[in-house]
């Protein structure tokens, strides 16, 4: 990646300049990061070893957990390094690399949420054809489409911005993001900013429409079920995904709410912390605590481990 500007390094301002608050932020981010990795790795491992968790739903959940791990890893460790060393600088090349991976993983995650909604639609509205429709080949193709879609979202920005010249070097965020990066440019960035907005809105609207259409069909089908027990069981299979969707889309809505320039940076930072540290931490608990099969698999693994330990 080449850049013809005289600025070769950016300075990451982070979340706070207060030394005492920085210690608290470091402890908080370190704990949430480690718990996120452990929680999501646990889900991935359970699905790998348990033969009862080999359906399409758990295949998508496994990929979602993997995305959560790499998304939080693309943001949090670098800021932990900044807090621990005090070195806030990052090269222009490294900054663009971070933007590429963060946007790729985040966009792919939104497309995957849409695919997971479709999976729940097929499971509830077409249960007799579920195994046939959501077969292994289809699932792999859908995952590939999510990654390709995420790549197509980031490439226009990357292609247009690599030759920008920079007059300033301050990134008012805790990781490299497109908006604070463009504010440092000497060049006219209006067109690039519009491209960023269009790509973000297209991702948001396309995936949200898929989610809404899937759940409208699901609700219609569930309301036709004769007994309350059947309706409860049908909704319980979607509840975890609905909570995760609410967190993901709810945090994005905050970004696009009109507000003063003074509040914009602070709110964007708060939403980014929610998306990159809180959400990856909560998702394993949401799926584990609200899913009987995952809980049963976890309990079986623990019992097996205790039995082997006692035997030794």
Automatic annotation (TrEMBL):
The chain crosses the membrane at residues 23-49, 56-79, 99-118, 138-158, 195-223, 235-257, 269-289. Residues 39-287 form the G-protein coupled receptors family 1 profile domain. It comes from Chrysochloris asiatica. Keywords: Cell membrane, Disulfide bond, G-protein coupled receptor, Membrane, Olfaction, Receptor, Sensory transduction, Transducer, Transmembrane, Transmembrane helix. This is Olfactory receptor. Pfam families: 7tm_4. It is found in: Cell membrane. Signal peptide: none annotated. GO terms for molecular function: G protein-coupled receptor activity; olfactory receptor activity. PANTHER family: OLFACTORY RECEPTOR (PTHR26454). GO terms for cellular component: plasma membrane. It is a multi-pass membrane protein. InterPro entries: GPCR_Rhodpsn, GPCR_Rhodpsn_7TM, Olfact_rcpt, Olfact_rcpt_6C-like. Belongs to the G-protein coupled receptor 1 family.
